[in-house]
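Quick one:
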Amino acid sequence: QVQLVESGGGLVQAGGSLRLSCAASGSIFRFNVLGWYRQAPGKQRELVASIDRGGQTNYADSAKGRFTISRDNGKNTMYLQMNSLKPEDTADFYCHGKIDWQNFWGQGTQVTVSS
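Output:
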């Protein structure tokens, strides 16, 4: 059973920071790629950042320069450090992992940025 569990969301003022965590059941080396997606009210889910098994990262334009994705293989955990948060970053954030053709999602964690 593959499980991804997010934590770290919350309410923060604009300009503040949050660090999201995604803990995987078992080794995260199983995943070809891990990523963070977000879904704002009334909008489609969108990719924020991803990191592959080799550590190569990819960011949405809106995240570049503000967010950093990383992984701690020893802790089987992926992180998203979010700095300089803006009200438009308000969304539910989801952890995603892909093993071959299978996609796995966490339950989501809410991030609210107040102006």
